[in-house]
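Study this pair:
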Amino acid sequence: MYRILWTALICFGMIGAAIGTDGVAVAEQAATLRVDPVAFDIPPQPLASALRAFRDQGGIRFIHRAELVQSVDSNGVVGQYSPDDALAMLLKNTGLTYYAADDSTVIVEQAASRHSPDTADQSAAIVPTGNPDSQRAGEEAEIKVPLVEIIGTSENALDYIPGSGRVITKESIEQNHRLTINEALREVPGVHVRDEDGLGIRPNIGIRGLDPTRSRKVHIMEDGVPIMMMPYADPSSYYFPPIFRFDRIEVLKGSGQLLYGPQTIGGVMNFITRMPSAKPEGNFQFWGGNNNYFNTHFDYGGTWGKSGYMVDYTHYQSDTPRFTNVRAKVDDITFKTVQELSDRTQIMAKFNYYREDSGIGYQGLTESEWGSPRGQDRQTLFKNDHFDFRRMGAHVAVNHMFTANLTSTTNFFGHYMSRDWARQTTQGINADGSLNGALQFGNAIPATAFGAVPGNARFTNEREYWVYGVESRFKYDHSLLGVNATADFGARYMYEQSDRKQFRNTGSGIGVTSSCFLAVAGATCLNENNLRTTNAYALFFQERLVFGQFTITPGVRVEHINYDQYDRLQNNGNGAFGKANFTEVLPGIGVTYAPFKNHTFFFGAHRGMSPPQISDAITGTGAVVDLGPELSWTYELGTRGNLAHWAGYEFTLFQMDFDNQIISQSAAGGTGATLTSAGETRHRGIEFATSLDLWDAMKGRDKDQDVTLDLNYTWVAQAEFIGTRNSSITGAALLPTEAAVVSVSGNRLPYSPKHLLTAGIGYTNRAFSLGAFNARLEAQCISDQFGDDRNIIAPTANGQRGIVRGWCMMNASVNQYVKKINTTFFFVAKNMLDQMTIMDRTRGIYPGLPALWQAGAKWTF
């Protein structure tokens, strides 16, 4: 009953979209402003005040995102003109355009971009909507896309954002030829990404010292909707879309993330995929390199009348950089359409199919193996593991403007995932080859194990996931007690279901047929048979109040989560049920202050929450575990802006205080280790970023050449246990003289490096005779990390605990565009100095990227 009521409430946002505007069907004509001339007297001034003067003199109402007009100047308009012509003059050279919603209401938005391969993005010409020429121009304009953005693309998009944030641009992704999402995110201050497979298939993303394992502490979205496996009950990132289909990446930290969720602790990431272009256009890209790497990417799309279509396909395959004697291949295809049903209603539909077929397993190297020729050559003995993953996703978004001041975006979304992972069992051995410990259906080999070899048994984890949801978001521009205000509010319902099975010993690790291997003999090979479901409800509200140079943004999010688990194997096959539920109210507030142009100070505080995984909230027997949501208070204080037209900067102080941060009970526990409340923890630090155009600094504004220097640095000065906390390790995971229980109060959290740095220098020449040329040299660095909560330095023999030494990798890229054939040729080097690094010890040693050398071409047609 509650689900029905909740869904009905959210679907209310669709009513206006369904009936259209004034009952007019899809074929309704565009509205035009009235044509009677008006005497305007608006001198040059900031655009925000110029629009207010235009409203007062011309009787025209405006609707726009506040950040679009912030720090933008207008040349003004003086004389007797029609409102249409006067507005075109007022917006000239601002990069903005408009269209009429009715004869006295205007929508102002960013002008459509003309994407030319040999130039930077250009703004579309601004012409009056009533002019016949403008209608022809409008036929080439991009359709307004119903898309949830967390930051946006305008030059001043961050001016009103209550918190720190960053947009990784299309140019950065393409010109640097980012091989993985890990590379791309390292240019964002505060973000730590730990490599696992070397191809970015399963990233481990942490923010400000949070545990990066499986990206569980970050809310990840694509085009405004969550894409994690189960966003509430199990947000582990066993899937990640290829970076090659992203147009840009938005990263938001601070109180602004309360509009999204359920993860509101570290930050929210929104990956924006390509949209249909204004004119039909396609791209075909291919490149290859060592490690038998090969990649092809194709996209084609365009706009025909009021409809846009696009198809995007990626295929890549490679010997995995982690272990080069196993391979992985990925196929990803997306179809997207955007339809303008009327001037007030647009709809987007997107369908995606993703497939990974790889030999990637879990078992890492021991210390002796890492130091041997096999370790240096990145060879694994576990060559019979197989990972078969498929995902089908759908997303429909409807945008509707009810009035000039009230708009809505309603998202319907869902996905199905199938994950079959067949793995060999693991057996620890001594230096003489004798057995050390029992056969493991996982990776928890003894701490003293000299090596790890495949055991004579095998198991397959079969998983199926169904997730769907509906969410309506509203934006309401209004006045509150005479103060200009914008309210963002909405509601969401989500359903999640997982069907989890484990089959043991369906075939041995060495390919010999064998019988079932179970602790208790049974008629089947089933060792796990769980059905888990989640029903989650969320309400969110944020009010932006503008007091001159101050903007105050209070907000609140309410999450109610119901977990159910049915273990079909318990009670002699009769099953056991368990239930748990949580309700959390998460308040927050953000303040921005812009005392002068191009500089903004900001402060924010909010309550963060990360729900526990369902497997950690309910035991297999159905008992409820006292493991509630992670709760924190996050504080930010910072400034951002431009010191000159060639120098931008951002500086942020942050602190996160956790009531009960949840971590692995012991990093030595390996796969499946129990999670536990770590009690109180604290994170403190500084983020700094700057981008300088040294050529403009010396020569003045030069549209043809740039010499850029950028630096992104994070200092996580404190990330430690501050409450009473003991580390408990039992059995063979202990070293011979090690205590089973040790106080770790004051210790640093595992996998929380103090220093993160990405710095690069680049050169661009757009006037080069062949076509635009650019090159960049980049360093990505990270300091030491602890591999466990006991902060031991010397590594254990099994490689699963000990210090993870810091590293710096040098990357380079060169791009040459050839106008005559509309093709860009490129060369890329990753870890060009071939530094040997350890990325992870959780399941044994995972090596970092080897030196990768790649070349390719991109043809635009």
Q: What stands out?
A: Confidence is low (pLDDT under 50) at residues 7-29, 113-141, 509-514, 665-675. Residues 41 and 78 are 5 Å apart (CA to CA).
